[in-house]
Specification:
The protein contains 3 helices and 8 strands. By secondary structure, the chain is α+β, with helices and mostly antiparallel strands. It holds the Pfam family SIMPL. One of its GO terms (biological process) is DNA damage response.
């Protein structure tokens, strides 16, 4: 079999699938001339955000506190501190897309709170990845058989299979920043963005002796 003819092919598959996760960031900010006042307001606003997220469970699958920023604000002409500014960001992950828009609006309705997102994505272990890999292998086998048939031969065995890599499209994000308003509570409808998934393999198959002529 070592000297048997070989056909080398590349198999590919592409799918678009519904997202499984949505992530957004909620940031509480505070600013005042007095440092202690700034810290107190920041803590109060962060606590209000936390309380809303607590109430939103189980829609909230995961939340992570990002960096806390507290810095003095100085005049350009010197080092004199004119105010203190602070912010605290939390990344929220949810799988409940029906409650997502309402949750983002309720968070954004808090005083001095900014909301940005969502970012749509798949889970790292999503079945979509396995399905597209299997589809890529099937495509490689179809191509090998087509080449073999064109030569009057048939595929006998697989000699080598290598994964050239899998890619998912960049996370789809809708940026938004909402400000508190006295208007009646709005509604926010969000359309989840399909997630592209691509896989490719390279394969070498042993084929029977071609019938040439």
């Amino acid at each position: 079999m070592a000297d048997a003819p070989v056909v080398a092919v590349r198999g590919e598959a592409y799918r678009e699938t519904a997202p499984e996760l949505a992530r957004f960031t909620v940031t509480a900010v505070a600013r005042d001339r007095d440092r202690e006042t700034t810290l107190t307001r920041l803590a109060e606003r962060a606590a209000a955000v936390r309380a809303l997220l607590d109430a939103a469970e189980p829609a909230v699958e995961r939340r992570e506190t990002g960096q806390v920023h507290v810095r003095p604000v100085t005049k350009r002409s010197g080092d004199r501190v004119v105010a203190y500014q602070g912010s605290l960001s939390t990344t929220v992950t949810t799988t409940d897309f029906t409650a997502l828009g309402d949750l983002m609006l309720r968070l954004a309705d808090q005083d001095q709170v900014e909301v940005a997102g969502p970012v749509w994505s798949l889970r790292p272990d999503s079945p979509a990845y396995r399905e597209v890999r299997q589809a890529a292998i099937a495509d490689a086998l179809v191509r090998a058989r087509e080449y073999a048939e064109a030569l009057g031969a048939r595929v006998i065995a697989l000699r080598e299979l290598s994964d050239t890599g899998m890619s998912a499209g960049p996370p789809m994000m809708v940026k938004a920043a909402y400000a508190r308003s006295g208007e009646p509570e709005p509604e926010l409808e969000l359309d989840p963005a399909p997630q592209p998934v691509h896989a490719a393999v390279e394969a070498r198959f042993t084929i029977s002796e071609p019938v040439l002529g």
